[in-house]
Amino acid sequence: MMNLSRAVVRSFSTATTRRATATSKDQIEKGYFEIRKVQEHFQKKDGKPVFLKGSAVDNVLYRITMALALVGIGGMGKLFWELSVPKKE
């Protein structure tokens, strides 16, 4: 049991030093550059909010959400009107 814990501690302690010494471009993982590319896309100054920069699907989902919100607000207004104005019998 003691040897297993030493092996685990040793693997964690050596992994951090290996990662810290990786400075050349060939040692940086390829996924890093893909993430940077996506970050640059979303940080572009094009006047769009970040939740619309993904694709056309984002725009459609945004418009559906706004339409449903307006329908809900309209329904609440109708309900308040019906509850506040007495019905004529």
TrEMBL record:
Question: Gene Ontology cellular component?
Answer: mitochondrial inner membrane; respiratory chain complex IV
Keywords attached to this entry: Membrane, Mitochondrion, Mitochondrion inner membrane, Transit peptide, Transmembrane, Transmembrane helix
| Compartment(s) | Mitochondrion inner membrane
Q: GO BP, one example?
A: mitochondrial respirasome assembly
Q: Which SUPFAM superfamilies match?
A: Mitochondrial cytochrome c oxidase subunit VIIa (SSF81419)
Membrane-spanning intervals of the chain: 60-81
Q: Tell me its family.
A: Belongs to the cytochrome c oxidase VIIa family.
Q: Which PANTHER family match?
A: CYTOCHROME C OXIDASE POLYPEPTIDE 7A, CYTOCHROME C OXIDASE SUBUNIT 7A, MITOCHONDRIAL
Q: What is this protein called?
A: Cytochrome c oxidase subunit 7A, mitochondrial
Organism, scientific name: Drosophila albomicans
Question: What gene is this protein translated from?
Answer: LOC117574990
